[in-house]
Amino acid sequence: MTILITGTSAGIGFTLANYLGKKGHTVYGLSRKSADSTYFKTIATDVTDNTQVQNAIAEILKTESRIDILINNAGMGMVGAVEDSSQEEILKLFNLNLVGSVQMMTAVLPTMRAQKLGKIINISSIGSEMGLPFRGFYSASKSALDKVTEAIRYEVSPWNIQVCVLHLGDIKTNIAENRVKTKVSEPYQSTFNKVYSLMNSHVDDGTEPLEVAAYIEKLLNKKSWKAHFYFGKFGQKIGIPLKWILPQNFYENLMRKYNKMD
Q: Is 124 a catalytic residue?
């Protein structure tokens, strides 16, 4: 298959591109920084720049007759209190996590429609299902991507194009180095420090990216997709059904304890 993956310069994207390239697929990695790998080709692309996105797809189609898979993996984290977040920081986050993914889908859909086949995976987070303390805008950006994915599934289904969201738990990557970290004002500082320390420890103890790659390979081999798939440790995944069934105040108290905010 011909597979496009965004955000392949490091972390999950790099591991996934290598993994699928080793399996014999033709893999293109779209990222701002080039990646050193013999298993996939990097096309320097800022997915928030639609001209660069269109140029990258045009370059791929010069040598490939089809595009089978798009995996929208490029994204960034953001931490800090809602009150302290600036408009510039919020827009930068949504521009990558939401708009960049939409622009990539828009760029590949004409080819997928013409071949009457295609699959798109939008990488989201378990945290998109709930408002996480000091990660409110990150949760919101991924939740927005979830809803766009649900909508586009209806729109592209006549052409046998499938789209899903893959919600990930904490993965052991260098995401902490690339997060937007807002200024944290004095009223929030003490609580934020505790939550932030715990947040980083969860990443350090997270699932290995190679396990994510193996799961995605299984997902690609499925004949039909649900709108949402979840991958991560049990302690994180269980938070989703609990939110659905527990009274809101009870659930919030559990979340406060989980995040050591009490």
A: yes
